[in-house]
Specification:
Elements: H1 3-14, H2 34-44, H3 64-71, E1 79-81, E2 99-103, E3 110-114, E4 123-125, E5 145-146, E6 149-150, E7 162-170, H4 171-175, E8 185-186, H5 188-198, E9 207-211, H6 214-221, E10 232-233, H7 238-244, E11 248-251, H8 268-277, E12 281-283, H9 288-297, E13 301-306, E14 316-318, E15 322-324
Parallel strand pairs: 7-9, 8-10, 9-11, 11-12
Antiparallel strand pairs: 1-15, 2-3, 4-12, 4-14, 5-6, 7-13, 13-15
Helix pairs in contact: 1-7, 2-8
Length: 325
């Protein structure tokens, strides 16, 4: 039994062997605090896995064979964007009005200004965006980053793009609700129940997208302060992600359930995926059309294509990922 399976099994045992989410037992799930998170980080990180100088991280898991597998999924040719249109107006989930569009004098040119980290712009994080215990992915010191940009682990390492199998995890559909309420945690058993429901098995090199219904809830009830108050993955899912060799994780919010339920760390998934596994994260995706299309097609796997702006030393990039069915 591998270490990751041990962690998963331990979580199940602590729940009395149940495969259902037991809200009253949340506090029993590791990691419960920073000390347990540190132990998990040491055990499951990918530091050194692809060499001491690696800056690609889990992009290495997307082999030519994986890309060919993804291309073979294209049947109907239907394409779906996973990006939310930029929101120029300030709102509780976009307090800084993170996007500005100014037309040039000729009205035939324009300037876009992004502040894309946060909750208002669909973007991907570079591997220099998060650190843990003073180190970036693959044991890179923070001194590698200056006001000129990230000297290591910048977004330019994704210049050739991402083409792999994407898998949608429609957790509201699994639970029979239109959307998840903020602070709802998603556990290993939820993901595996969805695999059975959807008839897919998440495998090495996949990009998984966690649909919580954020934008559906916003449409129904209005915007709310997503920072610190969103549905998402619980940190106990980390060993499972490593065990399955997932290449990328994305969501319609910020991946982590918040509050995180791990004392001493605000975003354990972000921290571990980026700094530990070397896995870029897709934030603030708009998965509404994807969920509708997947349900209509009765297919929750697709070819994913994505390409960030290859800014040398950039901490991430806005982007428009495309799912092809």
């Amino acid at each position: 039994m591998t270490s990751a399976i041990v962690f998963a099994a331990a979580a199940t045992l602590l729940l009395g062997g149940s495969t259902a989410t037991l809200e009253g037992q949340d506090a029993t799930r590791a990691p419960r605090n920073l000390e347990e998170f540190d132990a998990m980080f040491r055990e499951f990180s990918n530091w050194g896995r692809w060499g001491a100088d690696d800056e690609r991280g889990t992009l290495n898991l997307i082999t030519p064979a994986k890309t060919r597998q993804a291309a073979a999924l294209v049947r109907s040719g239907i394409t779906v964007s996973l990006a939310h249109n930029p929101m120029p107006g300030a709102a509780p989930d976009n307090p800084d009005a993170a996007f500005d569009h100014v037309m040039g004098q000729s009205l035939r040119s324009d300037t876009y200004t992004f502040t894309y980290h946060g909750y208002g712009v669909s973007h991907i994080d570079a591997l220099c965006h998060f650190l843990h215990n003073g180190r970036l992915y693959n044991d890179v010191p923070p001194s590698a980053t200056t006001s000129e940009g990230c000297g290591k682990n910048g977004i330019q390492n994704l210049k050739n793009g991402i083409v792999t199998r994407g898998v949608l995890l429609d957790i509201p559909r699994l639970k029979g609700v239109p959307y998840l309420e903020p602070a709802t945690p998603i556990y290993i058993e939820d993901i595996e129940a969805w695999e059975r429901r959807a008839g897919v098995t998440i495998s090495a090199g996949d990009a998984i997208f966690v649909y919580t219904g954020r934008w559906a809830r916003r449409e129904a009830l209005g915007p709310w302060r997503v920072s610190g108050n969103s549905a998402g993955l619980h940190a106990s899912v980390i060993p499972w992600i490593k065990e399955r060799d997932v290449a990328f994780v994305g969501s319609d919010a910020a991946t982590d359930v918040m509050p995180s339920m791990v004392e001493g760390i605000t975003q354990p998934l972000h921290t571990f995926l980026i700094a530990g596994l070397g896995s870029n994260i897709f934030d603030n995706m708009d998965l509404e059309a994807l969920a509708e299309t997947a349900a209509r097609e009765n297919r929750w796997e697709f070819m994913l294509t994505a390409g960030p702006i290859p800014v040398t030393g950039g901490t991430g990039s806005p982007l428009n990922p495309i799912a092809v069915f």
